[in-house]
Amino acid sequence: MARKRRISPFSLSFLDIMACGFGAVTLLFLILKHDVVPVDTADPNLSAEVALLEEDIRVGEEELVQLRNSLDQVQRDTVDAQGLSTRIVTRIEEIKRELSLQDDPEAEIETLRKQVEELELEISTLEEESRDNDLRKFVGQGDRQYLTGLKLGGRNVLILLDASSSMLAEDIVNTVIRRNQSDEIKRNSPKWVRAIRSTEWLVSQMPPETQVQIYAFNTEAKPVLEESAGRYLEAADNEQMDKLFKALRQVSPNGGTSLINAYSAIEQLTPRPDNLFLITDGLPTQGKKPPRGNTISGRDREELFYDSTEALPRGLPINVILFPFEGDPRAAASFWKLAMATKGSFMSPSKDWP
After folding, report:
1. What is the DSSP letter of 168?
2. What is the pLDDT of residues 241-285, one digit of tens each?
3. HSE-CB of 85 using CA atoms within 13 angstroms
4. Of 79, 80, 215, 340, which is most buried, counting CB atoms within 10 Å of its CB?
5. How far apart are CA 6 and CA 11, in angstroms?
6. Residue 314 and residue 96: Cα distance in Å, rounded?
7. What are phi and psi of 133, to 5 degrees?
8. Contact present, 280 and 162 (Cβ < 8 Å)
9. Residues contacting 189, CB < 8 A, separation 6+
10. How many Cα atoms are found within 13 Å in the side-chain-facing hemisphere of 269?
């Protein structure tokens, strides 16, 4: 019969279990012991005081920046004031020196008066010399001098003078009144007299070697001096010019205006002119033929104007002298564009010119 095994409470397995348990307890002890972090609880009163101090610091920094900016501005103002003060002091010294030199103001004034008289005498002498060089003597109101932008050069010059009814006056009412009066009254109309004087002034300012021709136009163009048709006259020949302007003073404005027929005078001259002066007061009222109705609109007149420019030869400068007429607002802009496009000039003179 087998022997019974004795059971011991301190067997190897029991010791192993006890060792493992002890180790686990030791490990937990170590972990819990070393991971403990003390938590300090902040005092609310101290936190509020810190916040107030931080706010005071922020406000103080902002005020410091403002003070620095103010200081910079004061320094700049001080520099400006010093500079202004220096300039004022310098100017005062200059005035003192000037006053010290003017011991006798009356003598100074007399010296200046003599200088002015000498200058006036010199200007008068130069004016007389200038008039001696003119082809024709032309004296305006008050023996005045004329400064214009007109291009007066050219070997062969054509002047086209508008002799239509509108050249009798600046407004429609007076034009209608004078249109029905005698030729003598028409020829003495102030506007027409100005146009003639403007033409005479142009000729008087041309170079001595210039050859000139004048055509008057309304619905057609004719030479002022009939026997000179198709040719030029010597601008330096005073006898011929006197005859030409005598014939011009016998012209009576009447009828409508046709620029395209006026430009036909260019083709009648040999050689072709190299400079053209157009003296007129407004846009054309007809083309090559009279209009069908008795009235014409401003837009239609403008179209007739641009149609007529197509008849102009290329390279011919057009210099326009415009005497404005009531009720024709598009005229000035249209003729100015024509002058600029042809490298000519444009002038709308005052009533006392020339």
Report:
1. G
2. 999 999 999 999 999 999 999 999 999 998 999 999 999 999 999
3. 6
4. 215
5. 11
6. 67
7. -85, -10
8. yes
9. 167, 168, 169, 178, 253
10. 29
CB 225 within 8 A of CB 264: no
Q: Where are the beta strands (DSSP E) in the chain?
A: 156-162, 211-217, 221-223, 233-234, 275-280, 318-322, 345-347
| pLDDT, greater one: 327 or 146 | 327
Chain CA centroid to CA 316, Å: 26
Query: Is residue 178 within 8 Å of 168, Cβ to Cβ?
Result: yes
Torsion angles phi and psi, residue 257, rounded to 5: -130, 130
- Round to whole Å and give the CA distance between 78 and 80: 5
Residue 141 pLDDT > 50: no
Model pLDDT, residue 309? 92
- Report helix, strand or coil for 162: strand
What is the C-alpha to C-alpha distance for residues 159 and 241, in angstroms, rounded to an integer? 13
CA distance 354 to 351: 8
pLDDT digit string (tens) for 112-133? 778 788 887 777 676 565 555 5
Place of tokens 């041309």: 206
Instruction: Examine residue 208 and say whether the peptide bond preceding it is cis (omega within 30 degrees of 0).
Output: no
The token pair at 266 is: 């260019």
> How many CB atoms neighbour CB 317 within 10 A?
17
Angle at which helices 298-309 and 330-341 pack, to 10 degrees?
10
* Per-residue tokens: 294: 């008795």
Model pLDDT for residues 163-203, shown as the tens digit of each residue: 999 999 999 999 999 989 999 999 999 999 999 999 999 99
In the numeric block, the tokens 């415009």 are attached to 322
Q: Residue 190: what residue type?
A: P
H/E stretch holding 185 reads helix 183-187
CA dist., res. 245 & res. 169, Å (int): 21
Residue 300 burial (10 A CB sphere; 0-12, 13-18, 19+) = middle
* pTM greater than the 0.85 cutoff: no
Q: What CA–CA distances, in Å, run from 43 to 37, 40, 57? A: 19, 9, 21
